[in-house]
Amino acid sequence: MATLAPATPKGDAVASDRILRAATGLFCERGYHGTSVRTLARVLRLETASLYYHFPSKQEILFAILDRTLDDLLDGLRRAVAAADGAEQRLRAAVRYHVLFHAHRRQEAFVSHSELRSLTPGHLRRVVAKRDQYEDVFRGLLTAGVRGGVFQVPDVKLTAAAILSMCTGVALWFSEGGRLAPEAIAGRYVEIIVRSVDRRGKGPRS
Amino acid sequence: MATLAPATPKGDAVASDRILRAATGLFCERGYHGTSVRTLARVLRLETASLYYHFPSKQEILFAILDRTLDDLLDGLRRAVAAADGAEQRLRAAVRYHVLFHAHRRQEAFVSHSELRSLTPGHLRRVVAKRDQYEDVFRGLLTAGVRGGVFQVPDVKLTAAAILSMCTGVALWFSEGGRLAPEAIAGRYVEIIVRSVDRRGKGPRS
DNA sequence: GTCTATAACTAGATAGAC
DNA sequence: GTCTATCTAGTTATAGAC
């Protein structure tokens, strides 16, 4: 589960990684348009001109954050799913991974969802393509379970969206020193979701 | 279900309602900090100075949107719950109402979630207090069901957060001309959620 | 209730020294 | 690789005419 660790060690990060980390925190807290290049520079104890040596524009900083985060997210999901057997175990692994990622890398995950609208059209297209691939993995897991007779899901597309909304929400409220550890949250979410798609659950309006 | 209709008829809205409607659309699309007062004025075919006759600041426009939306949301939820009997029916009514609101009043709902961070501290406090009341209703419904022996929910607080994240997500992707009508989506969400909390569902790791 | 004109400030970005 | 200095344009908000 390498993608759950920060992308670079905190001690001796190269300059561009320092910038991305600081930008992630600010974009998470105040939003992309709510964060000025001057503010970002001040946090980094640099002048604004110095930032432009590392990135050609503020927009490229945002894109780098989203692009890297989505790469890590998708890569980790594929590993997690590949390590499990059977439809239910694969769905459990996928949900667990998604929740852990959104807890451990909360700020990056939050920005990746909240700042899609701040991307230029070209950047947006590339990021959305990756997000769609990610969603397709979940749809595939549900479809496999339905075909295998272990899940009962009337609308795979809608259910995948519902599951992902629920799990992504963790990035909105998770706090490191909070009541529940990431693993505990992930465990509960897995149970909630598996119950809701399980063939043995109660039927509609029964 | 009066709160699912627009707050004011579109034809002869008073000026401040016209402003709030236009601002809601822009804040939803580009964010609060991504929308300039000039842009808002242009959309309304006014000069920026004219806006300041109706609202003292851009911040007050944002607050008015969130405050009204949360009032309507909480009011409608209480009505919906009061009209149902029994723990399961009440939860069904609450989830259905929440989803319908987030589909029918998508932009207001979206802004109310995404722009909390753009509120000044005083405004934020007031809005968060209302949001907490809203969440408390859901927690109360789950607790009642657990006490009545119809729900099996190990962690009411976490489950309420999970349910609300899932349903609120509808405001992110719902489209009026889309494949599914609001009622169809609400119906599916109700089933997903009721299954996941029902006592008769499969137990943990069974 | 809407306008023109503008004040006071901040935005993203660049030139060129060191 | 970071700095000082600065450009151009855009920002929220106000004064005062109509």
List keywords for this structure.
homodimer, 206 residues, mainly alpha, Tetracycline Repressor, domain 2, 10 helices, DNA-binding
Which residue ranges of chain A are poorly predicted, with pLDDT under 50 across at least 5 consecutive positions?
Answer: none
CATH T-level fold name of the domain at 60-197 in chain A: Tetracycline Repressor, domain 2
User: What oligomeric state best describes the polypeptide chains here?
Assistant: homodimer
Q: Quick one: biggest sheet of chain A? A: none
Structural class of chain A: mainly alpha
Shape of chain A from CA axes? Answer: elongated
The ordered H/E elements of chain A are HHHHHHHHHH
Name the pair of protein chains with the most residues at their interface, and give those residue counts. A-B, 40 and 40 residues
Average residue-wise pLDDT of chain A: 95
> In angstroms, what separates the terminal alpha carbons of chain A?
41 Å
Portion of residues within helices of chain A: 55-70%
Strand content of chain A: under 5%
CATH level 1 name of the domain at 60-197 in chain A: Mainly Alpha
CATH superfamily of the domain at 60-197 in chain A: Tetracycline Repressor, domain 2
Tell me the radius of gyration of chain A.
19 Å
- Write down how many β-strands of chain A occur, each being a DSSP E stretch of 2 or more residues: 0
The number of distinct helices of chain A, counting runs of at least 4 residues, comes to 10
Second CATH tier, the architecture of the domain at 60-197 in chain A: Orthogonal Bundle
